[in-house]
Amino acid sequence: MAQPAVRGTEIRVLSPGSIEDFHAHLVRLDRHSRFPGEDDRAIDVHCLGLVAAGAILIGAFVDGVMRAAAEIVPDRTARRAEAAITVEDGFQDRGLEQDLTSRIVDEAQRHHLNQLRIQEQNATRSYRIPVFQLQVLSTASA
For labelling alongside 12, which of 23, 99, 110, 128 has CA 20 to 30 A away? Predict the structure, then answer.
């Protein structure tokens, strides 16, 4: 059964200096929620790799503490990316994955990525993102 939505959640893109919040979130994950083989030392290496790769990190903060997160890692062409979402125990099935998925797609569009694969805790989804969405705001007759 789904639990009630989390009130007071703030979803935001993290600055490179916020890697410590992201790291602390990954360490708090239970062993089942971590990606295979991710012990605390592997998390250190993973976070350093994200910074080196120029990953886009997104956090879902509940009462000022990151309880769910997303990472977007563009490939060398900067046209495709892999993304992953993690949610701490006790905050699953409360809409945080959906909020993060939506924000990942928004960030992919903002960074002109056109292919995106998102690994969620229960599924893998692939997206094709239109690079440019042109809108006519007004027309002038000559």
Answer: 128
